[in-house]
Design brief:
By secondary structure, the protein is α+β, with helices and mostly antiparallel strands. The protein is built from four helices and four strands. Strands 1-2-3-4 form a four-stranded antiparallel beta sheet, with helices on one face. Helix 3 packs antiparallel against helix 4. It is elongated, with a radius of gyration of 16 Å.
């Protein structure tokens, strides 16, 4: 077994997320990072894309899920993203999701705010 990670960095989406409701009413720019925990043995041996997780399909599923409806908290959005990522391919044993709000409503000079969540397949 060759346990590893497939990484997706900087998946850019616009989503309705935030507290208070006025913030949530506006689309917020987000960046999402994914670390898919996958056994890479078969793909490393075969060099065949069918033997690994399709990170393009995972990216589309995550983007669709987090933009589907308004949520208040980044914590909730990270959970939605993790569930979507795990649903794509049973070979993903766990996922670590980082959701970064690129323009957080903080009254100080802050580049971004983020939440990181790790979820394992049940």
């Amino acid at each position: 077994m060759s346990q590893g990670e497939i990484l997706v960095h900087g998946l850019r989406v616009l989503a309705h997320v935030g507290v208070p409701e006025a913030e949530r009413a506006q689309l917020q720019p987000l960046s999402i990072d994914l670390a898919l925990h996958v056994d890479l043995s078969d793909a490393a041996r075969s060099d065949d894309v069918a033997d690994t997780v399709d990170y393009g399909a995972v990216s589309v599923a995550v983007a669709d899920a987090v933009t589907a409806g308004p949520v208040a908290l980044l914590e909730r959005l990270a959970a939605v993203a993790a569930d979507a990522a795990l649903a794509v391919d049973q070979r993903t044993s766990a996922v670590t999701v980082t959701v970064t709000k690129l323009r957080p409503p903080i009254p100080r000079d802050v580049a971004a705010s983020a939440v990181r969540l790790h979820r394992e397949r049940a």
